[in-house]
PA14 domain-containing protein
Amino acid sequence: SSVPSGACATPPVNCATSGLTLRAYANSVQVASGYGVSDGRSGVGPDYYLSQAPLAQGSTNSLGVPSKGSAGSTATPYNPQTPGSSATFQYYDGLTQTYGGITYNANNFTLVFTGYFRPDQTGTYTFCYAPNADNRDVLYLGSISAFPCGQPSKGATPRGATPLAQYWFAASGNTGCVSTNLVAGFFYPIRSVFGNWGTPSSLSLVFSGPGRTTNSSDISGLAYAESC
């Protein structure tokens, strides 16, 4: 049988459905070098992390990230940008979030999800930002855009790839829902680059598919780590 577009011909990993690989990266507070800057136009693109070392690594069975604000912080917020910046946010010293087994700076961060999505039924799968990503998420699916089968390294990851879906708070041209046809049993590389630039933050990325009529972020049983 032929291999579906974007799928892997042979299983790229021999491991249980343990969830996607999750890595945290630094995200600059400055407008020119931040990812997901709040004005919806400034800063760097979703490839920026490929030249950085991760701060921490964990795993997750969810496509989403719970919302996080400044509640509970006793710090006095301040503006960390260069004076006269075109966009700004209030920074709370010591504010952290724990997700996927890792703890990171909740003010500004980037979380990168990588691994394989293996559908259990053939048909149309729909991925939606419901309602949004705060500040920015770019979702890649398939070996052409996420990463080549069995080659999740940063060196092999394509630059400037065309995403399946994306959402940037305050920007135009966001994709609400995107549908794609997937074949059961095949491994599809998946990569999601979520950046937050100032609290609050949240990522509401859900999916539905054959036998899964309810929109959910939970990909338990369908998600594999990039390596094991």
Q: What stands out?
A: The chain is about 0% helix and 40% strand. The chain has a mean pLDDT of 96.
